[in-house]
């Protein structure tokens, strides 16, 4: 007890304790890559038909061309499972010996991102090896070979002779289905009116759809709320501004 004449010390003000901020982590997303998971549409019908026509291809190799995130790798995975194909990437083909080592004794191979091949001779050897074994090779790329500008004449002529099928830009129906699927792959749900709002205003590309869903996932986690119209509007505006800034920097 305080003695007479003593003044009680004022209470010490304690700083307010803020709740810890939720970290937005890009966790691995498992995407279904089976035929039952593919979203068929007019823009990818020719590509899907070509993949499913195997092994009745007009030649030993087929080139599948389409923009980023257009489903080329999904179609490649469907074909690889049907053909028991070895799965390769252009970025991994650093030498002819490495390509043939990865191929092993297989008679079928998938080469994703063939336009990003590290060593052109590796891709040429892969084409030759599969043809010699009377096997099949599926190549995917973002553009047709003339736009790659392959420097190796033999490879350039071989690629120019390949049957080529393209994936066209998505329509509204496919964009809507794509958003719903990618939300579901991340364990999220967006109301139909939110999806319709996004489809009516977003960039018409597969790649932007993927970026948009990823950004909405992160924003929903940080804000600790479901993906509603207000959040969708804010995230879309922020992402479009970032994309415009990136294009301006690239152009300058």
Q: Calculate the mean pLDDT score and round it.
A: 87
Structural class: alpha/beta
Kindly report the spatial arrangement of strands forming the biggest sheet.
2-3-4-1-5
Number of strands: 5
Question: What is the count of helical runs?
Answer: 10
Quick one: CATH class of the largest domain?
Alpha Beta
CATH superfamily of the largest domain: P-loop containing nucleotide triphosphate hydrolases
Given the C-alpha coordinates, what overall shape results? Answer: elongated
The run of helices and strands is HEHEHEHEHHEHHHH
Account of the protein in words:
It is a single chain. By secondary structure, this protein is of the alpha/beta class. It has two domains: 40-166, Rossmann fold, CATH 3.40.50; 172-242, Helicase, Ruva Protein, domain 3 (Orthogonal Bundle). It is 47% helix and 9% strand. The protein has helices at residues 45-52, 72-83, 96-103, 120-132, 145-148, 153-160, 172-185, 192-201, 206-223, 229-251, and strands at residues 61-65, 86-89, 108-112, 136-141, 164-166. The protein has a five-stranded parallel β-sheet, with helices on both faces.
């Amino acid at each position: 007890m305080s003695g007479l004449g003593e003044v009680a010390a004022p209470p010490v003000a304690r700083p307010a304790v803020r709740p810890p901020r939720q970290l937005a982590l890009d966790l691995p997303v498992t995407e279904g890559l089976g035929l039952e998971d593919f979203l068929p549409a007019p823009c990818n019908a020719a590509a899907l038909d070509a993949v499913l026509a195997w092994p009745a291809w007009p030649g030993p190799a087929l080139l599948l061309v389409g923009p980023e995130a257009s489903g080329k790798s999904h179609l490649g995975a469907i074909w690889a499972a049907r053909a028991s194909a070895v799965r390769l990437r252009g970025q991994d083909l650093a030498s002819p010996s490495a390509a043939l080592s990865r191929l092993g004794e297989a008679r079928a191979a998938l080469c994703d991102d063939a336009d990003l091949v590290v060593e052109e001779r590796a891709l040429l050897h892969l084409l030759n090896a599969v043809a010699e074994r009377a096997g099949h090779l599926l190549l995917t790329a973002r553009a047709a070979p003339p736009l790659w500008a392959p420097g190796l004449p033999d490879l350039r002529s071989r690629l120019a002779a390949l049957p080529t099928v393209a994936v066209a830009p998505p329509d509204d129906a496919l964009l809507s289905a794509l958003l719903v699927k990618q939300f579901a792959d991340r364990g999220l749900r967006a109301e139909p009116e939110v999806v319709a709002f996004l489809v009516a205003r977003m960039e018409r590309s597969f790649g932007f759809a993927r970026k948009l869903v990823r950004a909405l996932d992160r924003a929903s986690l940080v804000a600790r709320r479901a993906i509603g119209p207000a959040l969708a509007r804010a995230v879309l505006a922020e992402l479009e501004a970032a994309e415009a800034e990136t294009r301006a920097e690239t152009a300058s």
